[in-house]
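Hey L., structure's done. Input below.
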Amino acid sequence: MPLKKIEMKSINSRIALMFFLLLFSSTITRAQEIIRDSVVAPVKKIQTNERQKIDGIIATVGDFIILDSDIDKSYLELSSQGNSVKDITRCQMLGKLLEDKLYAHQAIQDSVKVTDAEVKGMMDERLSYMVGQIGSMEKVIKYYKKNSEEEFRSYFFDILKENKLSSEMQKKIVEGVEITPEEVRNFFKSIPKDELPLFGAEMEVAQIVITPKVSDAEKQKVIDRLNGFKKEVEEGSSFATKAVLYSKDPGSATNGGYYKMNRKTPFVKEFKDVAFSLQQGEISDPFETEFGFHIIYVEKIKGQEIELRHILLTPSVSEEAQTAAKEKITLIRNKIIDKKITFAEAARTESDQKETRANGGSLINPKTQDTRFELTKMDPSLYSQVSSLKDDAISQPILDTDENGKKSYKLITVTNRINEHIADYATDYIKIKELALKEKQIKAIGKWFDETIKNTYVKVLVEYRDCDFTNNWLKK
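Output:
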């Protein structure tokens, strides 16, 4: 059963509405005036006593404008994604657009960096998806009522850049918000008993993974190919183009292998060690991680942050190696069933997956960093593998192919089942902590709006001045 939605008395209606509208921040399409990397263009000023719209402008926030048609475009965009808009008023939609403009405006004031390379990568990825959904670039251009691909790309670039500025500003506001155990306890105590959330059924899962061994000859083929790419780039070829054409990393290939990272960015250790050992403009030798073999090209170094591109190749696995891996994991399963070894012991001594090996094979939920998986929110592929397993049962060997095309065999077992229940402080501390932190973050955002609006030029034209906005856009 889905998690029961609750409205806690400590979250007032002003903050709750703002949080509801924040859900749309990354998807609403609108026209805007936005500036490339570092130049802030002036907006057309609106006199304070003016009562007529100028060129469709209904509001100004700092260096950004909002057109009346932007509200209509926002409704259209939400509807096209299957969202209901019947309960969203034009005043609420304008309030959301005003929030986005303020985020983006303040991001520029605070020198939040969003590079054209990042935006172009986002645009390439989104366009690829849109073309796949609609059928062709021509249909995409027609859908957005643009005259050419160049006009559409310019329009879409500006939209994505503002979205990125907005999201980076939101992250900046809440990144320093932390919560103490005492605050979590007080938060839980403040919830009336009849309003405690209902948590759905959950389970804890463990697995053992055996990866087919790659021959030295196959590894050398990949190394030689990467060395060939390196030589060609050093002679003038485009690293980004080669990444698009050949890299097996689904997270960056369409973006020319681009990543921006610092030492705290969650990457595998071997990758970070090589990346931070390179000088600007340098290309690494091929090196190995659990994902395959890489080469890295460092484009820029800015203090403790680097912008890089990389190419990932994965060696081929022979049929003989796959067969050997399946035979090995079958023997492990038989030992566990015969009670010669426990599942956890087998995972610690035999599994090839280092992330779960030390924990006896226990999987970590990537969304919560907890070992529990709520059934209604579980990844469909994992759910299909565990849904039919009874207590203490062990799956047959499962051939698994990850997003990089890497094959492995695994055994899965359910180690614990938690039935649907009313929230309990001791049992559900991590979930309660998440709720408490979210409330504190929402309050921090509300405070930021109150303070930032006071110090920013904001103008809303007369026909929308009767709106009951969540934030004090009218500066009453």
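The radius of gyration is 26 Å. Residues 1-55 have pLDDT under 50 and may be disordered.

-- N.
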